[in-house]
Amino acid sequence: MARITIADIARRAGVSTGAVSYALNDRPGVSKETRERILSIAAELGWAPSQAARSLSGARAETVGLILARDPHTLGYESFYMQFVAGIESELATRSYGLLLQVVEDLDAEVQAYRRWRAARRVDGVVVVDPRAVDPRVELLAERDALPAVVVGDPSLAGGLTSVWTDDAAAMRESVRYLADLGHTRIGRVSGVEDFGHTHIRDVAFTDEATSRGVQAVVRRTDFSPERGAEATRRFLDGPDAVTAIVYDNDVMALAGLGAAHEVGVRVPQDVSLVAWDDSPLCLAAFPQLTALSHDVTSYGAHVARRLFERMGGARPGSYLDSTPTLKVRGTTAPPAR
Amino acid sequence: MARITIADIARRAGVSTGAVSYALNDRPGVSKETRERILSIAAELGWAPSQAARSLSGARAETVGLILARDPHTLGYESFYMQFVAGIESELATRSYGLLLQVVEDLDAEVQAYRRWRAARRVDGVVVVDPRAVDPRVELLAERDALPAVVVGDPSLAGGLTSVWTDDAAAMRESVRYLADLGHTRIGRVSGVEDFGHTHIRDVAFTDEATSRGVQAVVRRTDFSPERGAEATRRFLDGPDAVTAIVYDNDVMALAGLGAAHEVGVRVPQDVSLVAWDDSPLCLAAFPQLTALSHDVTSYGAHVARRLFERMGGARPGSYLDSTPTLKVRGTTAPPAR
């Protein structure tokens, strides 16, 4: 497939290269009919302005960047990221934008990648995920002339950048209230990675709401993997201090917890109640179907992409509440056994 | 963040811009010490050659492309793609390459995107997934001077391009043999999307092996979603012609099928045996744990990326068998009830 040039289009259309240039750049100098014929031939030949020429002229890369500072092997665990990426893509696809996805080792590498992307004009804007309480990425992207960015997370973590967030604290409080109202007096939380800002926000809401209801709250940390989710569940089920209800930080850990309970003969929901976070087809596929904090992650991703396009178009930073995850009560929660 | 230029580096290093250029392009003309100092300052300042300058000089985009011609909303269903992308990223990350991920409506749009990417030098090579029996992408990428490509699928579908594949036919035959040996005489297959080449290969192996064993084989098509997987399962469980074993085309449909069986009071594995394809943490999290055709999808993605780097480096096309999925027998398969 040879590279298509303006000369190729001119030859095929039987016009000068100048006429092609006028038509492609939407400038006066050619008739409407000629312009349309030239554009149609250009499309047919698969012509696209070279990235080089566009970059030199200050044009857009038509690419949005997303960096995940995670061990790539753990990415397959969670349906969250694929659904989130799918949502971003649903907005990008209508504009023929691409998503430049890169996995890096840590936040320093992520910061370096943003610098490189900015310098090489590889992307027009970036989506920043998993914000931390102190976050070098937010500091970098808040500089003057930085890449346009949208932070996916609580505005308190976004350092004045545009953010799109879900009210995780309110959702967590709703779950704890629901379990307390059912009569549970000792509740466990299978929590995620400690230095993620949203983990901390959920931790605080969990213990705070439990305390205010006179409920004992116990938190166990994991790496979000089903293996650690199952292990944390087994520890919550065992011994005299066992809990009667568990709230998980994602869907696969809840599913693994359900499996672990079945395995040791603990009945769900008669002996223990389970609540998943990030409702997904998996929660519906489980038996019993998992009670879950439900949130349309695909639509969340699409919302983030729309705000990024606004930002790249010159809009000022703002904070946008996407939604508050709502509790879908299904088969894995019930009053505790007497 | 201002754009870093060669002049900035020269100023900081106290040398001429010519010396910086020699050092950055690894050409003689500066001492080893000066070169190292310049490179260190360039790294510190976050300098990167502009994409524009690199493209004009024929340098690499340091980006690999992956296009998924699917409804973006269905992408969240399957853990396959996230694990596969994670595997690709594990190889890209070590080379500081990015993955340009784009979701398009259909194969025509995918072909157009390849043309645009090629013309604009957006990527150095592409990974082609879900090959069809007649595939316009393969035709395009087999042209002279086309983008380097690796097809993920059977060599019979790759049109002479480099391919990395798993022996799905052998894996399917193994499952059918295993179920036949257990005593099942009527087996169902919950199949995927019809025009995917691998769906056809599995269909043929399924019915062929069943026939040669004197086993009745019934195929139901789905769109890979858990909803359709559950629905197909309910139809397989109902009525006088019900099957006693079901082989699924992915993991979420098998999980949904397990849920559907529980729901209607059909015991697994006593009343019906279930086999999943694409073993995943979900299969282990289910109860009973799902018998599955196990295949390390993350390592498959990494293998594909390595072959693409070889191809981009000038290696000739070849076909590489990644592995044959192996049957992991767990809790959802047993002899049929008498």
From TrEMBL, chains A, B:
Stored InterPro entries: HTH_LacI, LacI/GalR-like_sensor, Lambda_DNA-bd_dom_sf, Peripla_BP_I
Annotated keywords: DNA-binding, Transcription, Transcription regulation
Transmembrane regions listed in the UniProt entry: none
UniProt keyword annotation of DNA-binding present: yes
Superkingdom of origin organism: Bacteria
The keyword Transcription regulation belongs to this UniProt entry's keyword annotation: yes
HTH lacI-type domain residues: 4-58
Positions of region (Disordered): 319-338
Protein name per the record: LacI family transcriptional regulator
